[in-house]
Protein 1
Amino acid sequence: MEEQPDFSHCGMAVGSVPGARYLPGCLQPQDQRRLLGELGPVLEAAPLYRPRMPRSGRPFSVRMTNCGPLGWVSDRSGYRYQPTHPETGKPWPPMPALLLDLWAALTGFDAAPEACLINHYDAKARLGLHRDEDEEDFSAPVLSLSLGDTALFRLGGLKRKDPTRSLRLASGDALILGGEARLAYHGIDRVLTGTSELVPGGGRINLTLRRVSRAG
Ligand code: MD6
Ligand code: FE
């Protein structure tokens, strides 16, 4: 097998909890365009939809979809992973090979990601402080890739009330939450519209790649 590039130690440590790595400018403009191009057919097969909050049923301001064998969804009955799109009932489209390669190169984790959550933000979209904790296994990191407008990302600690810091996630930036930081609180305060021309119609797309089940 061909040797994969290994960037699993690149990036700078951020936040108060070890295991968070920030890789600004990780994807060159041409890689960003290539990745966006690969998302075209994905978004056609699995259109963005607006999830609802558990219990209240209040709609999210962020629109979402997924690719890969599993997708993260939220509705009145709760948060979960499932193999099908909640509105079309069809299986999620496969993860583009480029994403699988980026996961291997950037995380060095030996099992493939099972879910890629695709978030789309317009000028008014936000994502409240949360932890990614619906997976069965926290030994794998979560890899985040950002395209389009810059977002103000808030990174906290292991408790909701811990101090936080703000980080700008621009187009092409990667962020990895692994180790202890795998369960750190984080969220999106807002998106700075007009900071990128990459995404047609404007806005921001964030991809988070995760393992859901225990590897091996
Ligand atoms: C976003 N990101 O950047 C939302 N989760 O739009 C996340 O919720 C996230 O960036 C886990 C790990 C990294 C992340
Ligand atoms: Fe998250």
Note: The mean pLDDT is 96.
Protein 2
Amino acid sequence: MTEKKTWSDRFESALHPAIARFNASIGFDIELIEYDIAGSIAHAQMLAHTGIISASEGEQLVEGLQQVLQEYQRGEFQPTVDAEDVHFAVERRLTEITGDVGKKLHTARSRNDQVGTDTRLYLRDRIGKIKTQLREFQRVLIDLAEQNIETLIPGYTHLQRAQPLSLAHHLLAYVEMSQRDWERLTDVAKRVNISPLGSGALAGTTFPIDRHYSAKLLGFERVYNNSLDGVSDRDFAIEFACSASLIMVHLSRLAEEVILWSSEEFRFVTLKDSCATGSSIMPQKKNPDVPELVRGKTGRVFGHLQGLLVLMKGLPLAYNKDLQDDKEALFDTVKTVQACLEAMTILMAEGLEFRPSRLQEAVESDFSNATDVADYLAAKGVPFREAYNLVGKVVKTSLGAGKLLKDLSLDEWKALHEAFEADIYEAISPRQVVAARNSYGGTGFEQVQQALDMARSRLNSDT
Ligand code: ARG
């Protein structure tokens, strides 16, 4: 049996040690300590401000709490499982430091509104960090795009060669995805930044507290309007896990492309030694472990989203201990997204090299200019569907003859349709095929340059 617990004298005996371990969250919610202390400082200041405790008591509490944080940071304060959770641990240590006044900290508060406050402060902070990382990721992709406006790469649909692209256009697609990720986090942050503090255990409190005062001290934008909702809402964590899942979808898709590109079958990129690993048995191998891990870790983030949704679905109002189990999912989501963003940013910044000659060879050796032949005829007045059918036939006969479209003689073109002139060769060259797609948002070089400028100017804005 462990020592007698923090709660009331209603309890005669201590918890069974295994149950104490099972019940405790200190092993993981210690992650919240700096936010727990910040929340407690604001609460103590509010108690003094409203006269619920004296100004001097308020000051002693604030100083004591600051000392607890310093002790923790210096490694001198290391709470163990008998503290149960971070909230009890801090309060207990505070009371050791300040004596009886420490016992006043929990006036007009419950661990239920406290843990909700801590979790929001933590997540608000981490969202800010992830947003900064997303900007860095974008910057790296934009730099890479800038160097590769004129580099061509095959574009695919169904993983079949479709139409050639500017490599910059391809990279900027990921900048757009991460822009939505950035905007989504900005939006989620609005609902993270609401104070539940002062909701009490579930029903509010008998003390004349000022919830707006503590909320303001903590930088919250507003307070929960309903105390039951305040202590039991975890929508913000789910919304975050959903946004995190989408970030992972995007990183994983890019990871998958890098894996394909680095294969012997594609050979579009070479992985640099700083970001690739070898095999313990096959000496010739260079493996794309970084993008593979990113793709793999995506699964656990999706799992956390699912876990949080299921955690919440059957909970009657208000607080239930099930809610303690949101933390590991949330912390792991944050850590995984941060680690994957960092790794992918390094990989794209310095871990791979595109192979221009191989890319050029790829875009020249296929029929991805077939649409342009149809467009050529359509521009000369041939109805598009008719032109499309004709080009289908040309592709078929060329394939049979082992030729590409560029290998057909002008006589052969003219035999197919009298509208063909010598300018057909220019019209179907990969460079022209790309340049011609100058519609807004297309891969034409002018469009890509504009998209790049826009993406770069967005980097320094807060929208
Ligand atoms: N460790 C708990 C959690 O994370 C704190 C709140 C406990 N509240 C309670 N009524 N037992 O949810």
Note: The chain has three domains: 17-107, 112-144+167-207+223-362, 363-462.
